[in-house]
Amino acid sequence: LRKDSGLRKSRSSTNKSTVAFFTLLFAALFIAFTVFAVLYLRSRTGFCNFAEEEESDKVKPLNCTVVPTPGRQGIWDHYRLPTSLVPINYQLVLWPRFHPESPESTFTGDVNITFQCKNATDVILLHSEQIEVTVVELVRFEIGTEAPQILEVWRSSLYSYLVINLNETLTENSIYVLRISFSGVIGNSTGGFNVDIYIKTVYFHSCFRSVITTQMEPTYARTVFPCFDEPSFKATFDIHLIYLPNYVALSNINNSFLGLGGGGGSHLKLF
Ligand SMILES: *[C@@H]1O[C@H](CO)[C@@H](O)[C@H](O)[C@H]1NC(C)=O
Ligand SMILES: *[C@@H]1O[C@H](CO)[C@@H](O)[C@H](O)[C@H]1NC(C)=O
Ligand SMILES: *[C@@H]1O[C@H](CO)[C@@H](O)[C@H](O)[C@H]1NC(C)=O
Ligand SMILES: *[C@@H]1O[C@H](CO)[C@@H](O)[C@H](O)[C@H]1NC(C)=O
Ligand SMILES: *[C@@H]1O[C@H](CO)[C@@H](O)[C@H](O)[C@H]1NC(C)=O
Ligand SMILES: *[C@@H]1O[C@H](CO)[C@@H](O)[C@H](O)[C@H]1NC(C)=O
């Protein structure tokens, strides 16, 4: 523009109309280009295509009953977890079955919770919210020794507990492993598994991309997997994530790629 005005100053007034004509022509072309660029971008902006995931692993039916709060009284009527059981380690496998275009995506998971019995009890309490528990199994860590039998698994919704009743008490100082399979809906709560959408643009190619994030604090871990969801119950975690090869899995802790995981050629990563 500076050049242009310089030119205009140096030329005679007869050339002014020519300059004005070209300026107008340029402006018209620029507007036309902008309109077309916007139309083009709009037509390009849609969800990126992702390979369809095979629904290979069907959720197994629960072997025990999960009944909603039957109004019974017991240790599940307390806001804080009893300290009779202490978790040591969680082996967690999470498989988000994510479909960017569908409003509801689900996830499935398995967790092995290794815990120690500090005080004999015949009730196991865990936090669990908005997830469906499909299989519950209790084994004793020491091989060759029997764990009590699970009589009932039910939900006490007042304090978001999953209650597991046993036929006899757990032995003090013994270590047990609780195996639980579960499923849930991604983005069904404000925490836990969240879905966010962003627009990725490379030159004029832009499309919606989705990202699933986890927000476990303060009490959303229970919406992702059954756990002792109180800060004092510290434990170690081995987290495996199963995801499609065209996704990227990131964590704020050290991780290693483990190659192919579950069905549909999914990848498996250990965090
Ligand atoms: C689970 O199912 C198996 C086989 O159907 C049965 O033998 C076992 O008693 C069941 N366990 C529970 C806790 O219901
Ligand atoms: C739980 O333990 C069993 C037996 O060791 C194993 O087969 C299974 O893969 C474990 N699950 C997880 C989630 O690590
Ligand atoms: C656990 O047992 C010890 C000793 O037997 C007892 O002092 C303590 O109060 C018990 N704790 C709970 C939570 O029952
Ligand atoms: C989603 O959350 C609502 C309430 O927050 C609950 O009623 C519903 O059962 C949840 N859906 C699933 C599939 O868990
Ligand atoms: C509880 O179940 C275990 C395992 O099935 C069995 O060995 C034990 O006898 C049962 N105990 C009672 C009190 O029924
Ligand atoms: C991360 O893990 C890899 C493989 O287990 C290991 O070689 C590396 O030293 C670790 N890095 C950190 C910062 O812990």
UniProtKB/TrEMBL annotation:
It comes from the Eukaryota. The chain crosses the membrane at residues 21-41. Keywords: Membrane, Transmembrane, Transmembrane helix. One of its GO terms (cellular component) is cytoplasm. One of its GO terms (molecular function) is metalloaminopeptidase activity. The lineage of its organism: Eukaryota, Metazoa, Chordata, Craniata, Vertebrata. Pfam families: Peptidase_M1_N (PF17900). Residues 86-255 form the Aminopeptidase N-like N-terminal domain. PANTHER family: AMINOPEPTIDASE Q (PTHR11533:SF31), PROTEASE M1 ZINC METALLOPROTEASE (PTHR11533). The gene is LVRN. This is Laeverin. One of its GO terms (biological process) is proteolysis.
